[in-house]
Design a protein that fits this description.
The structure holds 2 protein chains of 2 kinds. By secondary structure, chain A is α+β, with helices and mostly antiparallel strands. Helices cover about 50% and strands about 15% of the residues of chain A. In chain A, the strands form 3 sheets. Chain A has a 5-stranded antiparallel beta sheet with strand order 2-1-5-4-3. Chain B is built from 8 helices and 12 strands. Classes of the chains: A alpha+beta, B alpha/beta.
Chain lengths: ~450, ~220
């Protein structure tokens, strides 16, 4: 069995509303159809009652031996055999007397309701369903009357109920159709209600995801009183998250300062001495320096992964770095140039962006003969809500790097040329940072004849 | 050449001062931002080595205040914060170069030399005036093919004059740039040093401009006495 995901609020609201309205509709339908059946039966019984009263009146009238047919009811239905309409007079006191019945009954007899256990109503009056002579169900009413001369008679009138049943069925069909439409309308309105009722929640979710994407700093706008406290708490959470990250960064920076200064002291003291001990200390100080840098990077990365929604204006960050490199290479060799055709935002920390580009420019500056070129363009996400990317390329006109060495160049601490200064960490820092931001870092052939470092990063 | 070192860590401060003095510079030092800012604002330094994380006033603020007050001496920033964003901030505040801790002393020395050279418009470590050649990296002075041994004060005087070749340098300026602030300044000693220097170099490249000061003339083919 797979674990089922919890239902959404909308689904819950919808399901409960649908369940309630459907069961209420069902019950109402059943009640309505029962009421209709009752009143249809009553009306039917009323018709049968008219005939019954006519026969009763006939039988109760004394001295009518001349009449062979007491049930002259003036309705041809009683004359046609097995027409569905019947009457029957059964003498109860004198067994000798013949049972009289309508012609329609032909030779058969109507069953007795009293035998089927139907209780008598007021005035020995019974009504109920029975099996007719041709097997069809009939509605039957019967009554016992007592005459002075001839004693008790049981008088029965019956009619086939197919008419009644089809009336009732027709009513039930139209009732069902009506209620079905009603149910659909109710479900529809429930959907609309849920949507309307939950729309502030949806808006809240939109705000929160905008913050995650870095499009906003906090949840803005008015929310209904039920949601406003939640929005407020979320804002507090976001700002406290920022504070924690900021504090972590500050502490990492402090730690760096605290460790690097004594390291400098040790290294410098050792350098001014000429002894095996001093050499060992120098060497180990260098190892410690690398270790400190490595773990500082790690700590920074950890602080980074908790960061919510920072974005960076790319162009000013690039300009600041290029300005810096122009100052470092004040003699104009190599020359640092920019070709920025767009102004996207990077979804991440400015410091990290500058760290990546700074290392790339530093590397390019070491190898370039005369020119380093920074180009920037935008790569729109695929249709269907794909992520936009910005692509940053740093080209130099240096000797370049053969394809089989490019992968190695990105590895931590790997220096392909020991004659150039550097820790060998630069390009691996770029690769690590790019990975943290789900970006891509590749080395390619450049348009200036040297190497091109290409950085593809998520845009905000 | 007179330098200022602003660094709050006592050991690093001492190491820097020692190394720079050994390299032939007059060096003042400060241990906090306030003091450093005051010295840099009032004394004519040829270059400053400035830490960023300083008590009382942080290094970037000190630097920005110097720059907005029109102090243009080259500044080398020294800091443990070595991310590129920190460097951009430093350069934008007006720094001329940047060394990250932990650093190698040689690197600081090389950067300081480069800053001084650039500030006075020279492109190599070797300064030449007629037959006199001065290597700022090794601190060696050669006249023709002959190496000349100079005391640190003589070297400083010659180096300052060679950095500012062709320009009249007043006695006061020399005093300000040759001695650190604790030195007992007596302008007469400048004349004494100039005299000794002329004698040691053996060529007359230092010209006395009456009432103004001294000038090193690159065009003058110094004659032997």
């Amino acid at each position: 069995m797979t674990a089922r995901a919890p239902r959404s609020l909308a689904q819950r609201l919808f399901a409960s509303a649908a369940l309630w309205s459907l069961s209420i509709l069902l019950v109402a339908g059943l009640i309505l159809s029962a009421i209709y059946r009752r009143s249809a039966e009553n009306a039917f019984d009323e018709r049968l009652g008219v005939y019954l009263r006519a026969i009763v009146a006939d039988v109760a009238t004394p001295g009518e031996d001349t009449r062979t047919e007491p049930g002259q009811l003036g309705d041809p239905q009683f004359e046609l055999s097995l027409s569905g309409w019947y009457w029957q007079i059964t003498p109860l006191s004198q067994q000798t007397k013949k049972v009289k019945a309508s012609r329609s009954l032909f030779a058969s007899r109507l069953p007795l309701l009293a035998d089927q256990g139907v209780k008598a109503e007021l005035g020995e009056y019974r009504r109920g369903y029975a099996q007719g002579p041709d097997g069809r169900s009939v509605r039957l009413i019967e009554r016992v009357i007592e005459t002075d001369e001839e004693g008790k008679f049981l008088i029965q009138v019956a009619a086939a109920i197919n008419q009644l049943e089809s009336d009732i069925r027709r009513f039930e069909y139209s009732l069902a159709a009506t209620f079905l439409l009603l149910a659909l309308a109710l479900v529809g309105s429930t959907v609309a209600q849920v949507r309307f009722g939950l729309s502030p929640l949806r808006r809240l979710q939109g705000e929160v995801s905008a913050i995650r994407r870095g499009e906003g700093d906090r949840i803005e706008g008015e929310f209904p009183p039920d949601l406003a406290p939640l929005a407020g708490e979320l804002n507090l959470l976001i700002s406290s998250n920022r504070e924690i990250v900021e504090r972590a960064r500050t502490q990492v920076g402090n730690l760096a300062h605290a460790l690097k200064t004594p390291l400098s002291v040790i290294a410098n003291e050792a350098q001014s001495e000429q002894s095996p001990l001093a050499d060992k200390v120098s060497e180990q100080a260098q190892v410690m320096r690398d270790q400190v840098n490595y773990y500082l990077d790690k700590a920074r990365a950890a602080a980074r992964s908790n960061m919510v929604g920072a974005t960076t204006e790319v162009v000013p960050a690039i300009e600041g770095l290029v300005r810096t490199f122009q100052k470092i290479h004040r003699d104009g060799v190599p020359e640092f140039e920019m070709d920025l055709t767009c102004a996207p935002r990077f979804r991440g920390e400015e410091q990290d962006f500058q760290e990546m580009l700074g290392n790339l420019l530093d590397n390019a500056g070491k190898w370039a003969a005369a020119r380093v070129l920074v180009t920037l363009h935008q790569e729109p996400g695929f249709v269907g809500g794909g992520q936009d990317f910005l692509v940053l390329s740093v080209d130099d006109d240096g000797p370049g790097l053969p394809p089989d060495l490019r992968e190695q160049a990105v590895k931590r601490g790997r220096r392909l040329d020991e004659t150039k200064p550097g820790s060998g960490l630069g390009l691996s820092i770029v690769a690590d940072l790019a990975a943290v931001y789900a970006g891509e870092f590749t080395l390619e052939d450049g348009i200036l004849g040297g190497l091109r470092a290409r950085l593809r990063l998520p845009a905000a | 050449m007179r330098l200022l070192v602003v660094e709050d860590d006592k050991d690093i401060n001492r190491q820097l001062v020692n190394a720079l003095e050994q390299a032939g510079y007059a060096v003042d030092h400060a241990h906090d931002g306030e003091e450093g800012w005051f010295l840099g604002d009032t004394e004519p330094y040829d270059a400053v080595v400035l830490d960023i994380g300083l008590p009382k006033k942080d290094g970037l603020t000190v630097l920005e205040e110097w720059r907005s007050a029109g102090r243009t001496m080259p500044v080398l920033i020294l800091t443990a914060r070595d991310r590129w964003s920190d460097k951009v901030q430093g350069f934008d505040a007006g720094a001329d170069d940047y060394v990250a801790k932990p650093f190698h002393m040689e690197e600081v020395l090389a950067r300081v030399r480069a800053l001084l050279r650039r500030a006075t418009g020279h492109s190599t470590n070797e300064l030449t005036c007629g037959p006199v050649r001065l290597d700022t990296k090794s601190g060696r002075v050669v006249v023709g093919a002959q190496a000349v041994k100079l005391t640190s004060h003589e070297y400083r005087l010659l180096a300052y004059m060679m950095h500012h070749m062709g320009r009249v340098v007043s006695r006061t300026e020399l005093v300000e740039h040759l001695y650190d602030q604790d030195f007992d300044r007596d302008s007469n000693t400048v004349e004494v040093f100039v005299g000794r220097l002329r004698k040691k170099l053996g060529v007359d490249v230092i010209e006395t401009v009456r009432g103004l000061g001294y000038r090193l003339d690159p065009a003058a083919e110094g004659l032997s006495k």
